[in-house]
Amino acid sequence: MKIEEGECHSIVYVSTVIAQLGEAALLQLLRRARCANQQAGITGVLMYGGGQFMQVLEGCPAAVRRLYARIEADPRHSLLEKLADGPLPRREFTGWHMSFAPLPAGYCDGIPGYLTPPQMAILGAGTSAQPLLCEFLEHSSQRLLV
User: Fold this and answer.
1) Domain extents for the chain?
2) Would the pTM count as exceeding 0.85?
3) Does residue 84 contact residue 12 with C-beta atoms inside 8 Å?
4) In what order do the strands lie in the sheet with 8-17?
5) What is the four-CA torsion angle of 55, 59, 62, 68, rounded to 10 degrees?
6) Lesser CB count within 10 Å: N end or C end of the chain?
7) What's the fold here for domain 8-143?
């Protein structure tokens, strides 16, 4: 599906996986996600490290909400916490049907404003993901596997 300009929506979430994923499992997950996201017109970035995911999904509102509902129902996730959910003036990851950045254990601990999923649950979902995402992308852009 061609990515169309127009109404754009984004959901950003973090979650903890039930069981650690090895490199082969991550690559398989990434291949499936890229194919499905391209067909649905969804772009974004997936970050994984230390058993935690952070993902940005963007696209038409209905497609993004459908995908997030599938993620919510996926038994591989626990402590799923939505960080942001709303309209975007434009896509931030145009052409990235799902970029992927592997994170070494403890990587996010050094990022100002980083909260673990349990900390997010305590504070509530009102925290903006934008500063954390910008900081992450600034420090890891050379490691993104597009």
Assistant:
1) 8-143
2) no
3) yes
4) 77-88, 8-17, 52-59, 43-49, 99-102
5) -10
6) C
7) Alpha-Beta Plaits (3.30.70)
